[in-house]
Amino acid sequence: MQTVTLDPSILILAALACFTGAYVQTAIGFGMAVIAAPLMFYLDPALVPGPLAFVILAMCTINGWRFRQGLELKLLAPALLARIPGSVVGVILLGLMSQQLLAILIALVIMLGVLVRLVDIALPMTRTNLAIGGFLSGVMGTSTTIGGPPMVLVMHGADMHRIRANLAGFFVVSSLMSMIALVGGGYFGQAQLLQAAPLVPAALLGNWLAVRTLHRVSKPVMHYGSLSLCTLAVIGMLINTLS
């Protein structure tokens, strides 16, 4: 097992990645793992998925409480039920993948997230599509911490406030499912908790700042800036892992 204590420089950069990801996710309802995962994997592969999953759970809990009034549990039920077997499959994938394969999977999932943001695709929010989205979110979210793209694709055509509220609620439960699966699979324990603990305040600070400054940030800047950061992070991660 890799060392529990992170190098100070890595800790600072990982905290910055969590801060940025939390800011973006609070602003648009999606993006924490898409931004933070490749950066943290590049810094230290041990930070993904376990420690990052814990940070995401903490931040999603805050957002879920903030947007609880707009939550539609009946709408989300098929996605949440389907996410359970998806989480199991995600843990199985972790046991089968090398670090190189995990890096490639993370890259593919992130580029899917970028594509969802760039292309105006709106799937109907049927129970079947929500269930498929929930299952894929479970697979991807547990193995890479990036479970947002499938659900965003299904909800893409809805009102922004509805998307933000329901994604917030979905991510609370889904993040908890991933944590349970990771603990059960032996991918999260005391070592990962100690690595995650100093990163949680950075994510909560990003969340807090987003709530108070979002009205001052240009939407195009947020949109294309986060996509550019994702793309550069993926390229750097792949170069570092495959070289």
UniProtKB/TrEMBL annotation:
<feature type="transmembrane region" description="Helical">
    <location>
        <begin position="167"/>
        <end position="187"/>
    </location>
</feature>
<comment type="similarity">
    <text>Belongs to the 4-toluene sulfonate uptake permease (TSUP) (TC 2.A.102) family.</text>
</comment>
<keyword id="KW-1133">Transmembrane helix</keyword>
<feature type="transmembrane region" description="Helical">
    <location>
        <begin position="47"/>
        <end position="67"/>
    </location>
</feature>
<feature type="transmembrane region" description="Helical">
    <location>
        <begin position="223"/>
        <end position="242"/>
    </location>
</feature>
<protein>
    <recommendedName>
        <fullName>Probable membrane transporter protein</fullName>
    </recommendedName>
</protein>
<keyword id="KW-0472">Membrane</keyword>
<keyword id="KW-1003">Cell membrane</keyword>
<keyword id="KW-0813">Transport</keyword>
<keyword id="KW-0812">Transmembrane</keyword>
<dbReference type="InterPro" id="IPR002781">
    <property type="entry name" value="TM_pro_TauE-like"/>
</dbReference>
<feature type="transmembrane region" description="Helical">
    <location>
        <begin position="101"/>
        <end position="119"/>
    </location>
</feature>
<feature type="transmembrane region" description="Helical">
    <location>
        <begin position="73"/>
        <end position="94"/>
    </location>
</feature>
<feature type="transmembrane region" description="Helical">
    <location>
        <begin position="12"/>
        <end position="35"/>
    </location>
</feature>
<dbReference type="Pfam" id="PF01925">
    <property type="entry name" value="TauE"/>
</dbReference>
<feature type="transmembrane region" description="Helical">
    <location>
        <begin position="131"/>
        <end position="155"/>
    </location>
</feature>
<dbReference type="InterPro" id="IPR052017">
    <property type="entry name" value="TSUP"/>
</dbReference>
<dbReference type="GO" id="GO:0005886">
    <property type="term" value="C:plasma membrane"/>
</dbReference>
